Amino acid sequence: MAKAQVQLISEEGLRHDGRRPDELRPIRMKVGVLSNADGSALVEFGKTRVIAAVYGPREPIQKYMVLPDRAVLRVRYHMAPFSTSERKSPAPSRREIELSKVIRESLEPVLLPEYFPRTTIDVFIEVLQADGGTRTASVTAASLALADAGIPMKALVGGVAVGKVNGVLVLDVDEVEDSAGEADLPIAAAPDIGLITLFQLNGVLTRDEIRAAVNMALKAIEYIVEKEKEALKAKYEF
Amino acid sequence: MPSSQRRIVAPGDELDPKVEAKEPYVVEVGGKKVATVVGLLDYKGQKPSYIPLEAVYIPKPGDVIIGLVTGIGVTNWFLDINSPYQAVLNIQDFLGRPFNPATDDPARLLKIGDYVKAKVLAFDRTRNPLLTVQEDGLGRITEGKVITISPAKVPRVIGRKGSMLNMIQEETGCDVFVAVNGRVHVKCENEDLEDIVIVAVKMIEREAHKTGLTDRIRRLIREERVVRGV
Predict the structure, then answer these.
(1) Chain A contacts of B85, Cβ < 8 Å?
(2) Would the pLDDT of A1 be above 70?
(3) Model-level pTM?
(4) Complex ipTM, two decimals?
(5) Which of B10, B30, B84 sits opposite A193 (nearest CB)?
(6) Given this model, what pLDDT does residue B2 score?
(7) Which of helix, strand or coil describes residue B186?
């Protein structure tokens, strides 16, 4: 990987957008944004904007995929052609297929699929605007949409990425930091049941750095899940 | 605890061990009772109650439900019962005698789009739920209107000991049947009254988590009756 030439941490220790290293971007969450879906959510991490729609449990569209004892979770992560600065082909890319699988596996541990045998639960994730951290924003949106659809789950899942730029660990990396930084570590977790459901690493981190990064991410995820609960409760104002 | 003694819980929230609720809306994780769907925790009365605000209908033998005919098979109909599972109603059961394909035409007995009030005869999760209409009051719905609401809101439409449903029926003189799968059959003297009941039921669905709903629905029905002149 080419070494980062850009100065991403200022002399005062602030990042290129003025955040402190352990500061999240402004988060906005809203549930029930789509009326046709059983559950839906819009999640924004700064300029990253993701929408998720959940259908089901319902009769499978492709009958061959049913399981006799539990529901099948299907996840489709897709980036809108207008989500990036250069047009992204709308056809599913290798990266999107892989991310769909990764997101599905980060949601499966909290679901209770055995209550809905022979059905599918479909999650459609559309990235409307990409500015780094789309996979973690997608996990957050999908978890929120599943809860909005009334699908029983043991806990809510939230996600955030920790990166390393100019040798400093930074929380919630955006596009600039992601492309110029030395490492990127996306994490998703369900703090209510103490479970890490997604753990990836791109780049190089030392053991101590990983430990520090995981702690940083888990603290942030606790806050993100708290925001998710607030968003769910806001739908039912007294 | 807020003064209203009610609060909304989200999936993953720990609940009072005294709370009684059915799985899968409450499960035990690591010895703790945890809510799995968005629900309403109510401290009214002796012990706290937990009412899920989102739910899907899972058929249970003995349930009286309203199904919508969506397909016609060789010896049966397929019905949408507002559930992940498609229900099956045998023609033989509908006729109450053996089915003869030479003389009986299933498409003339029940058309696609017909609503049928039926009872769940069997459902073991390995096959689709089987329905029966061989009982009093069951069969094709010929009058009135049917609307679909979330199955989670059915208890609210019925109310405590049927209070909400009785009030609606008294105020409008209509015949209202609330099926557990979230379908409401309304039968009135005239269409205006049916529309009023539908507006009321939709309002209950929307505001199921709020307090003092019965009084507000009563006021809504009275106002609507004046406005519509019925």
Answers:
(1) 59, 118-119
(2) no
(3) 0.91
(4) 0.86
(5) B30
(6) 44
(7) strand
CB-CB neighbors (< 8 A) of B37 in chain A? 147, 150-153
Identify the pLDDT of residue A17.
Answer: 92
Q: Determine the residue of chain A that is closest to B53 in CA distance.
A: A150
Homologous superfamily of B145-228? K Homology domain, type 1 (3.30.1370.10)
| pLDDT tens per residue, range A5-29 | 678 888 888 999 999 999 999 999 9
- Contact status of B86 with chain A (Cβ, < 8 Å): yes
- CB spacing of B85 vs A119 below 8 angstroms: yes
Distance in angstroms (rounded) separating the CA atoms of residues A159 and A136: 4
- What is the tens place of the pLDDT at every residue in B12-29? 999 888 887 777 888 888
User: What does the domain layout of chain A look like in residue ranges?
Assistant: 27-235
Average pLDDT over every residue of A46-55 = 97
Residue A44: DSSP 8-state: E
Which residue in A has a C-alpha nearest to residue B14's C-alpha?
A192
Q: Which CATH architecture has domain A27-235?
A: 2-Layer Sandwich (3.30)
Query: Using a CB-CB distance cutoff of 8 angstroms, which residues of chain A are in contact with residue B23?
Result: 115
CATH number assigned to the domain with residue range B6-52, chosen from the 4 options 1.25.40.10, 2.40.50.100, 3.30.565.10, 2.60.120.10? 2.40.50.100
CATH number belonging to domain B64-140: 2.40.50.140
Residue ranges of domains in chain B: 6-52, 64-140, 145-228
The answer to whether B6-52 and B145-228 have equal CATH topology is: no
Q: Torsions phi, psi of B20, nearest 5?
A: -110, 120
Contacts 24+ apart (CB under 8 A), B219-227: B221/B168, B221/B171, B221/B172, B221/B196, B221/B197, B222/B171, B224/B196, B224/B199, B224/B200, B225/B171, B225/B172, B225/B193, B225/B196
CB contact under 8 A, A193 and B12: yes
Report the alpha-carbon distance of residue B44 to residue A56 in Å, rounded: 33
- State mean pLDDT over A206-228: 96
**Which residue of chain A has the CA closest to B205?**
A236
